[in-house]
Amino acid sequence: MKQIWQALKAHQQAVEHRAILDLFADPRRAETFSTRLDDMLFDWSKTNIDHTARDLLIDLAGAAGVAEKREAMFSGAKINETEGRAVLHTALRNMDRPVQVDGVDVTPALRETHARMQAFVRDLRAGRFTGQGGPITDVVNIGIGGSDLGPAMACLALAPYADGPRCHFVSNVDGAHIHDTLKDLDPATTLVIVASKTFTTIETMTNAETAKRWMAGVVSDPAAQFAAVSTAADRTAAFGIDASRVFGFEDWVGGRYSMWGPIGLSLMIAIGPEAFDAFLAGGAEMDRHFREAPFAENLPVLLALVGLWHNQICGHATRAVLPYDQRLARLPAYLQQLEMESNGKRVAMDGHELTHHSGPIVWGEPGTNGQHAFYQLIHQGSRIVPCEFLVAREGHEPDLAHQHLLLVSNCLAQSEALLRGRSIEEARATLAKKGLTGSELERQARHRVFPGNRPSTTLAYEKLTPATLGRIVALYEHRVFVEGVILGINSYDQWGVELGKELALALQPMLEGRAGTEGKDGSTAQLVAYLRR
Ligand code: F6P
């Protein structure tokens, strides 16, 4: 491993200053450094990765044991070693393939829960399950992190397929969130889903109580319009939710990997069981590809290796996710949790400090909006931000096809501009045509130079259907897995979220004036004094 890392670093230093554009002197460059899965095209040719770098990266994946660990994950081994758990979100989208945890096949229980979800959703969508004021018109999913971001992202992404009740998402403990969401809804025709793996998360439980009070003001039996999604059946019962509307899952489904199962209930309600199954099938298709394709043709492996090249080898700390697809507006936020909660760790599985940086900082916004906001820095800032574009060949609005064309041309223009840049000579020539001369021409020209040679990748797909979304989400999940294995990280725990939770609990009585701030640092004590009610 160490030798491969060193060889990669040495190679990167040797090629750092060459122009990526020159690599296209090879007429087969684009084709060779692209990977396809059916209609999906992942073009990673606009990076500085050449044959040598690619081969070394693939060697790195081999030496890290990606293939062996991949099989361990799919077969139910407890690869989440710090929590002693299997990692089996893949079983949620492939319930026909038996897989054992502690010697027991887990798939019959998955199928049963899935069938119960389908029956409930069908009843609700057909008006057989109603609120106390009539058919359910609105669904409010109360959850946070993995119990919110996945279904919220997917409900927006698949809006063209939504033909059920309207779905709303409340996550923040800030009362403004639930207030603004509930204020226009009718409690008598609203279903509240309390989505929490642990059913202890303070934000979710607080919002759930608020929703219950809101409903109690109007309907006689608020709990009858609540459903729960959790691994903690005892707690959902204590909250008063009837077991017939509780959909359980096991602790081997990580929160940020959980949208495929009961956490996806809101999505199933929005788009219907058939479209939800198509979403699962898309994820399962990516699983098959990930398990079977050789590394050199394996989409998740290559996406991970490109990420490692940019972050750990080239030293670019962030990556921008830039969907040219307004309905993927929540994808960057979803990926922030998926990638940063999974691989944002400086200690390896074996307890030692990492010798490389942990996973990258992930951020982004949909195009073309971002172009009018932060692309300035991406094009002319002093730091390099590898960009990951996503774009569909076809939109869902045939009568607005001309707008889709504009969208796509903007997407391609951005990756081309990042690659090509604009030289000082080109800038001078443009200004000279406008009549500028001398030192003013020179000064102005400098501001108009684009260094170019900035890496990007593009994931293109036919259309954002449920199956395509399933493939995209599973693709990123497996990317995280591969990056985690190569870095030696446990991608499936999240100890880094605990300290803040503990401190918040201790601060509550101080803010209420029931406890003093002795032992707090001066800044925290001052802020408590200011914010205390
Ligand atoms: O605090 C982080 C976290 O545990 C995430 O990993 C998780 O997705 C989120 O909180 C919500 O947890 P739960 O589903 O148990 O409410």
UniProtKB/TrEMBL annotation:
GO MF: isomerase activity
Keywords annotated in UniProt: Cytoplasm, Gluconeogenesis, Glycolysis, Isomerase
Catalytic activity: alpha-D-glucose 6-phosphate = beta-D-fructose 6-phosphate
Subcellular location: Cytoplasm
SUPFAM superfamilies named among the record's database cross-references: SIS domain (SSF53697)
Metabolic or biological pathway, per its Swiss-Prot or TrEMBL entry: Carbohydrate degradation; glycolysis; D-glyceraldehyde 3-phosphate and glycerone phosphate from D-glucose: step 2/4; Carbohydrate biosynthesis; gluconeogenesis
Family: Belongs to the GPI family.
Biological role: Catalyzes the reversible isomerization of glucose-6-phosphate to fructose-6-phosphate.
Name under which the protein is recorded: Glucose-6-phosphate isomerase
